[in-house]
Design goal:
Elements: H1 2-27, H2 29-33, E1 37-42, E2 45-51, H3 65-81, E3 87-95, E4 105-116, E5 119-127, E6 133-143
Antiparallel strand pairs: 1-2, 2-4, 3-6, 4-5, 5-6
Length: about 150
Amino acid sequence: MAETNDAASTLNAQAVAEAVGRGMYERDHCARAHGIELLAIAPGYARMTMIVRKDMVNGHDIGHGGMTFTLADTAFAYACNAANEATVAAGCSITFPAPAKLGDQLTAECREIHRRGRSGVYDVTVTNQDGAVVGLFRGQSARIKGNVVELG
């Protein structure tokens, strides 16, 4: 019987995460303006993608680090809010092991590393279409009051 309850709980948590993803994306003007798309969301997890456009390339003719950061930060936001508990960034950092380039399709995959009480830690790996890592992001989250979406 415990397996059935665990399966039902997982399905419920997944349904909540999907509702959060839809609700956040509807209001996420920044993500939509930058062409960021939500590919997958689950409890403590999000995968998002973005094409590096000409207006995202810097004076060195490579992807602006701020754009890679924006993609990673967006995936972080969706992952840490997936439980429908309003959560914001408390801090974050990023490393750029390789440059993104004009036309690259970047994918940010965020995973919850630890969550306890009001705090969480999340890692995001940003890769290009060839699998090269162009960003390694770590975010610390803080739970605030409220929910992301109204359920039921």
